[in-house]
Design a protein that fits this description.
It contains 14 helices and 22 strands. With 554 residues, it is of the alpha/beta class. It folds into 2 domains: 294 residues, Divalent-metal-dependent TIM barrel enzymes (TIM Barrel, Alpha-Beta Barrel); 227 residues, Hnrnp arginine n-methyltransferase1 (Distorted Sandwich), CATH 2.70.160.11. The longest helix has 20 residues. It is elongated, with a radius of gyration of 27 Å.
């Protein structure tokens, strides 16, 4: 059953899943996890017997029934709709596609193909890929990318399982620090060319890394967050009331608010016992009154979801537009809404009625050019509203925005500025001021061309997909208006964030400096921006000579 109802929330984070065992009958798995009182919403279940090996099948022929029938059966019962909405396929955990053992590597390649083909045949919405077992995962990524490129699989996502730290049993030597976890993921997705159907599933294991280590994951395509039952604890005599640490609660709350699903996983050493227990229960109990064995754990997560801040009326109306890219306006061509700047002071409301000249980046709707044209009508002691405004820039990880642009299959779209209600992004460093304009101008000869070099220190390893843009304006004296995060005007609804994408995302290591150059260019017919990164690795100069985007002056 869903975690709850949050008015306006239509994301999948309302649904909770359980990582479960292999059974030849998926109907049994579903009966013991979903179709019962206080059941989960979906299962993450293996599609193939964990003992199956293609090389053994070749060696011993078809002697073993299990080798001849390695898949879960009854693909017509449950129905296709149940397979699609209630089952996430779990690819065999033993596979190692980069193993130096040729037999193991070939077995792994064969099984990966068989299981993904089976999942596609069943129309599953996603498959959970096992954690890479080596620092070098080129062959693993190559094989996965082959499937991602197939047209028939474009509706199925592949979720790569990545632990948040080092396992307690020291079984995975490649994950020595939390930073190693992100580096493995980043290497894998780079090898797959940032494919939009490749997502990451974070496995919490037994301990949560420090808050700053999780920063690398904000803005990434986190499909699900796995919590193991041994992360929960009790504080009294009631074993059915489970609790989580404050740190873990904070992380779960963040992911729930960013469309990430929660999956509860039982201690793997008990999987065999759990399977036998389920079979016994299934044979003697009716489905109407059985309660899921993990319902105390699900209730704990349910309480966190229900404690999320309710969405305001405005947030509900804009929920569907989160991270939705919109083209910038052409102020001299488009009809813009009338906006009145308002300053409330107790019962008195004062309105200044100048049309709205300020864009989401301050000067991107040609405020400098508009006010320049009006300045000749201003008396010597006259004032301009706004009197000044400054644009701000901030590097971001924004996988969803990057994928949306990439899906348009037009390379010049990456050299175009957009507006977006940014939500699922990681803001990697404090924003910095870029261009400032003051009105009225002291001289008519002052140019509206601008150039500036900015340097951002990135505290944690991350991928930079582009830059968020904001503005801060002084309307008159101490009357302020803006969207810059640290001093944004409360209740501002007219302006979205601005977004400048990078054609190729830039990998930045912990503590390194990201250097970016920005230009505002003008000629007699148009105004446009150009931008590039020069460190830690250079990019092309985006939108050179306004080849992709501009604001027309006539």
């Amino acid at each position: 059953m869903p975690l709850g109802e949050r008015e306006g929330d239509t994301s999948k984070s309302r649904f909770i899943g359980v990582e479960t065992y292999f059974n030849k009958s998926m109907t049994v798995v579903l009966d013991n996890n979903i179709f019962l009182e206080k059941g989960c919403d979906f299962v993450v279940a293996p599609l193939m017997s964990p003992t199956y090996r293609p090389s053994l099948m070749q060696q011993f022929g078809s002697i073993s029934v299990e080798l001849r029938l390695p898949f879960t059966k009854s693909d017509l019962n449950p129905s296709a709709k149940i397979w699609n909405t209630k089952v996430i396929g779990k690819i065999s955990e033993w596979i190692d596609l980069d193993s130096p053992d040729q037999t193991l590597r070939k077995d792994s390649e064969t099984v990966l193909k068989q299981e993904i083909d089976k999942a596609a045949y069943l129309s599953l919405q996603a498959c959970l890929l096992p954690t890479p077992k080596r620092n070098t995962c080129a062959n693993y990524a190559r094989c996965v990318n082959q499937y991602l490129q197939l047209k028939g699989l474009d509706q199925m996502q592949l979720w790569l399982r990545i632990p948040l730290g080092k396992p307690d049993d020291n079984s995975s030597a490649i994950f020595r620090t939390p930073a190693d976890c992100w580096k493995i993921w980043n290497s894998f997705r780079l090898l797959c060319d940032h494919h939009s159907n490749l997502l990451v599933t974070l496995d919490n294991l037994n301990a949560l890394p420090a808050d700053n280590s999780l920063n690398s994951w904000y803005g990434e395509p986190v499909s699900a967050f796995i919590i193991h039952t041994d992360c929960f604890f009790t504080t009294g005599d009631d074993e059915n009331v489970k609790h989580l640490s404050k740190n873990l609660q904070k992380s779960i709350t963040y992911f729930l608010d960013h469309s990430t699903q929660i999956i509860i996983s039982e201690d793997r050493v008990n999987y065999k016992e759990m399977e036998e227990y389920c079979f016994d229960t299934c044979s003697v109990a009716g489905t109407d009154h059985r309660i899921h064995r993990l319902h105390p754990y699900m209730d704990c997560v349910r309480s966190l979801y229900q404690q999320l801040d309710p969405l305001s009326e405005r947030e509900r109306s804009l929920f569907a537009f989160r991270d939705d890219l919109q083209p910038t306006v052409q102020p001299f061509k488009d009809t813009l809404e009338y906006v009145a700047y308002q300053n409330s002071d107790d019962d008195e409301k004062k309105f200044t009625k100048v049309s709205d000249l300020l864009g989401s980046f301050g000067d991107n709707e040609l405020a400098p050019e508009s006010l320049d044209g009006a300045q000749r009508f201003l008396k010597k002691d006259g004032i301009s509203i706004p009197s000044s405004y400054t644009s701000f820039l901030q590097p971001v990880t924004a996988w969803k925005l990057h994928s949306a642009i990439k899906a348009k299959e037009d390379i010049l779209r990456f050299e175009t500025a957009y507006m977006a209600k940014m939500h699922n992004v990681a803001r990697l460093a404090p924003s910095q001021p870029l261009f400032t304009f003051t009105h009225p101008k002291s001289s008519n000869k002052e140019s509206n061309n601008r150039y500036r070099n900015l340097q951002f220190v990135i505290p944690e390893s991350a991928v930079v997909h582009g830059f968020a843009g904001y503005f801060d304006a002084t309307l008159y004296k101490d009357v302020h208006l803006g969207t810059e995060p640290t001093k944004a005007t409360p209740g501002v609804i007219t302006w979205d964030d601005h977004y400048f994408p990078l054609r190729e995302p830039i990998c930045v290591h912990r503590g390194s400096t990201l250097e970016v150059n920005f230009w505002r260019c003008c000629d007699y017919t148009k105004v446009w921006y150009e931008w590039c990164v020069t460190s830690p690795s250079p990019s092309l100069v985006h939108n050179c000579n306004a080849r992709a985007d501009c604001m027309w002056l006539n």
